[in-house]
Design brief:
The protein is mainly beta. The chain contains 2 helices and 11 strands. The longest helix is centred in the N-terminal third of the chain and has 17 residues.
């Protein structure tokens, strides 16, 4: 039943996010929530993505850590929380509500991102690494304000994802906001 619920939740959310939409969460639901888990999801952006992905019974499962600050080169850059099946990371340099999330299910590693608003891009570059591909793979996907991909897992280790929004001009890609913070599947 849990697996069916996770798949149905993912299909609905994936369709919404792939079309550049966002998943609304009622104001009352934006408070810290345990929802049957021992640890609260208390960062609002991460909570909204976790809730949209089905909460405790969804794609990410229950939190396994408290929300942690993320720093790049010694400067504060966002927040990250680890879950049973993956991670969710708030990466505000790419948009004030930008959250990237990664999880695994049935031999696939999933990654979704959004919303980049107020930025809108012609394309997204997604890069991922794993134990079987330490040099990484990069692919280009359609633009907008968000998206979702899945990758067939080739090993049992973690898959680590980042995404960058780009505009395409006469002389190539211009990617002004840079790469997001990382999101990964569990080890």
């Amino acid at each position: 039943m849990l697996s069916t619920k996770r798949r149905l939740t993912g299909v609905v959310l994936g369709s919404v996010l792939a079309l550049g939409g966002t998943a609304a969460v009622p104001a009352a639901a934006q408070t810290p929530a345990r929802a049957g888990c021992g640890i609260a999801v208390n960062e609002a952006h991460i909570y909204q993505r976790w809730s949209a992905l089905g909460g405790a019974g969804g794609w990410l499962g229950c939190p396994t850590s408290y929300t942690k600050d993320v720093y790049l080169n010694g400067a504060y850059a966002g927040k990250r929380q680890y879950f049973t099946y993956g991670t969710a990371t708030w990466s505000p340099r790419q948009g004030p509500n930008m959250v990237v999330a990664a999880w695994e299910d049935r031999g696939y590693a999933y990654f979704n991102w959004g919303t980049t608003a107020p930025y809108r891009y012609d394309s997204f570059l997604v890069r991922w690494t794993s134990a079987s591909d330490p040099g990484g793979t990069q692919r280009e996907f359609g633009g907008g304000t968000g998206g979702r991909i899945r990758v067939r897992e080739q090993n049992t280790g973690a898959y680590v994802f980042v995404v960058e929004g780009c505009d395409i001009g006469t002389f190539g890609h211009t990617c002004r906001q840079g790469w997001t913070l990382k999101a990964s599947t569990p080890n």
